[in-house]
Amino acid sequence: xxxxxxxxxxxxxLSSFGCYTPVRWPRRTLWAPSVEARSPxxxxxxxxxxxxxxxxxxxxxxxxxxxxxxxxQELFHADLLGRGVQPISLAIRNGSGxxxxxxxxxxALPLMPSAQAAQRSLPHxxxxxxxxxxxxxxxxxxLVMQSIVEPTTTLxxxxxxxxxxRPPRVDRQAITxxxxxxxxxxxAIGPDGTQTGFVFARPLRMGQAISLRLINAATxxxxxxxxxxxxxxxxxxxxxxxxxxxxxxxxVSTASAIKAWRVASADRDQxxxxxxxGVWAWRWSTLxxxxxxxxxxxxxxxxxxxxxxxxxxxxxxxxxxxxxxxRFFEELELLLPPPPxxxxxxxxxxxxxxxEKPALPSPVPESAVPSSVP
Length: 374
Prior knowledge:
The protein is of the alpha+beta class. It folds into 3 domains: about 10-35 and about 125-170, no CATH class; about 50-115 and about 170-230, Immunoglobulin-like; about 235-335, Alpha-D-Glucose-1,6-Bisphosphate, Chain A, domain 4, CATH 3.30.530. Helix content is about 30%, strand content about 30%. The protein has 8 helices and 18 strands. The chain has helices spanning about 1-15, 70-75, 115-120, 125-150, 160-165, 170-180, 245-255, 325-335; strands spanning about 35, 50-55, 60-65, 85-95, 100, 110, 170, 185-190, 195-200, 210-215, 220-230, 235-240, 260-265, 270-275, 280, 285, 290-300, 300-310. The strands form 5 sheets. It has a 5-stranded antiparallel sheet. Strand 2 (about 50-55) and strand 3 (about 60-65) form a beta hairpin. Helix 3 (about 115-120) packs across helix 6 and helix 7 packs across helix 8 (about 325-335). The longest helix is centred in the middle third of the chain and has 28 residues, at about 125-150. It is extended, with a radius of gyration of 35 Å. About 20% of the residues are buried.
């Protein structure tokens, strides 16, 4: 260590004396603390393959949207499901003429407070330690490049400077406040009122019903609502502006062209195509049977629905990427393209009486012209 310090002192002295260039000491950004800015949580929007359930009873409707892994990561900027947190969007609309009280304690789910969910969204301690080790490893090279090499030469090393900067810390208070703001609040829901927000629970078991209780503010009578959860089945449907025969032929040819799929049965009259994918080897199997249904909506309108069982019974299976299914719909779009949009007609300019051209006089027939010759 002593030899290293002596060598560094000698290098600094030679660079400042021999080259007549003073040493430019590094900027404070190399070790100055900074705060990592995270975008605010966005409002959820239903997507294909998402688990959305709705129920209405006595004028009160409840909409429950279980976010899949990809949507939760886009909205909350963290892999919540990978850390054991299932965000659920809950919307309660009171269409009756009475007032109801809502409390998160009356939801039959193992909920966790928003502060605990926000704590799990933070980077893992091992990740923070790895960032500090990386900063310590590149700090000295960045210090040398910025204070010695760059002032005495025309070289520039922006990669070393960026890597040698101190990693920013996470603003825990801002993230916790954002989670608390997005959490659904307890309180009264008046007539024609709506209460929306998130609740945070453990990964759910699909196919079960979630009980929700509302208390009538006037009679103190509970209103029990059971919101059914969809089964662990991936479903995606799309409509095409093509006749049934053309859509059925495109579905069969597209499914047969995918090498990983094997057509098990095809019923043209019922519009049902059964496809299998996966392999089987002794006790280990990945066989999956998918059902593609083609429904006639009109003379030139058809609906194609694909249903595939998920490989997990919990909400972790939702949002899993299915490349073969995505490829199926992409190739089907090529065979069943949308109709071209009609160009809007240009509005005809209205002319004023002053702009109208005067009508030309009609020609006079020759028989009506008097002859000058007697």
